[in-house]
Design a protein that fits this description.
alpha/beta; FAD/NAD(P)-binding domain; D-Amino Acid Oxidase, Chain A, domain 2; 8-stranded mixed sheet; 10 helices; Geranylgeranyl_Rdtase_fam
């Protein structure tokens, strides 16, 4: 490790690794650090992504693809099922990844582009001089160090400490954070070509349960719930009850817990000498909580803009805000829209969810837009209009 770089990236998840890769590909001297000793482990993700989105950044490889799914099945509280083809299922349906391998592959691509990658390296603070972030203070294998950089990238996840050190408010309200728990369950009967979602207060108040296949008889089974819906029962209890009901003979071989921002993009992603990417910038989808593709997009935009700024000799917020603008154009408008949908949907009653599911029986989704779909739901069942009015 040297004492000075063009760019230091804190966090080697998909967003951080892609930012390092993009910046290094532009000829910059980049350091990518990860506090854990293994990139990609532990996994805090349902591991589902859309095929088109992921293919933009990396060639699909069976080494990190556990399952290729063709659609999704959504179950209402009373068990009514709505089936959607892959193209209507969102950015989390297409491939189910093995993140422990996938994340390392993105980091390897950053290294092959020229970035230096350093694990077991923790950022402890920022070097700030004359209102500019100038580098980091850190710990490497028990030894304190300082490393300077023209730009620092915060890719350190939910409620980013790096962002807070730089004066960016990364705190989340309870209604804007999903607390999640997930089991990897083996020896179960599943359809390996479909992702399943279960909604309703019994399964996941203010959220949903997912079953994402990871092979013929194995799946990620997890749930997320809004902090505002917490009433003393932890997600791990909800998902254990679900697993005992749905897969009573299954064997749990891994348990993970975590949190996901569902707030919409932060109003500010950059300051003098620093930008935030991925979950640190709150770019995950407010409806689904999915964030892999958005993380890669934000990291890619950031790396390219940083290269422009450094080559121009200006890393001020005014110059780096091009990243904010491009990220908002690419992701922010969609996230804002989905946030409004989330605010409506999480207040919908179980009875209305059932009524909507009943209304969709027999509907062909091949040639129907979301506005037309909502109109069809209301036409078939006018009583749901009051609760769904915010979507129109």
């Amino acid at each position: 490790m040297k004492s000075e770089y063009d760019v230091i990236v804190i966090g080697a998840g998909p967003a951080g690794s892609q930012a390092a890769r993009a910046a290094a590909s532009e000829g910059l001297d980049v350091l990518l650090i990860e506090k854990r000793q293994e990139i990609g482990d532990p996994v805090r993700c349902a591991e589902g992504v859309g095929k088109e989105g992921i293919s933009k950044f990396i060639e699909p490889d069976q080494r990190w693809i556990c399952a290729e799914v063709t659609g999704s099945r959504i179950y209402s509280p009373d068990g009514t099922m709505v089936e959607l083809a892959e193209k209507h299922s969102g950015n989390e349906v297409g491939y189910v990844l093995e993140r422990k391998i996938f994340d390392r592959e993105i980091a390897k691509l950053a290294a092959k582009a020229g970035a230096e990658v350093q694990v077991k390296t923790q950022a402890r603070g920022l070097i700030i001089e004359n209102g500019y972030v100038k580098g980091i203070k850190g710990m490497y294998r028990g030894t304190e160090f300082e490393a300077r950089a023209k730009v620092v990238v915060g890719a350190d996840g939910v409620e980013s400490r790096v962002g807070r050190w730089a004066g960016i408010n990364t705190a989340l309200k309870p209604k804007d954070i999903e607390t999640c728990a997930q089991f990897l369950i083996t020896d179960i009967d599943i359809d390996p070509t479909y992702c399943e979602f279960y909604i309703g207060s019994k399964y996941a108040p203010g959220g949903y349960v997912w079953v994402f296949p990871k092979g013929k008889r194995e799946a990620n089974v997890g749930m997320g719930m809004l902090g505002s819906h917490f009433k003393g029962k932890h997600p791990i209890e909800y998902i254990r009850e679900f697993a005992e009901w749905k897969f009573p003979e299954g064997k749990i071989i891994e348990t993970v817990v975590g949190a996901v921002p569902v707030s919409g993009m932060l109003p500010k992603l950059s300051v003098n000498g620093l930008v935030l990417v991925g979950d640190a910038g709150h770019v995950s989808d407010p409806i689904t909580g999915g964030g892999i593709i958005n993380a890669l997009e934000s990291g890619d935009i950031a790396g390219k803009v940083i290269a422009e700024c450094i080559k121009a000799g200006d890393v001020s917020q005014a110059k780096l805000s091009k990243y904010d603008h491009e990220a908002r154009e690419k992701l922010g408008k969609m996230l804002d829209r989905n946030y409004k949908v989330k605010e409506v949907v999480t207040g919908v009653s179980d009875n209305t969810m059932n009524a909507v599911a009943h209304s969709l029986q027999g509907v062909s989704f091949d040639d129907i837009s979301i506005p037309k779909l909502l109109t069809e739901v209301v036409k078939r069942n006018p009583m749901v209009l009051k609760e769904l009015v915010g979507l129109f």
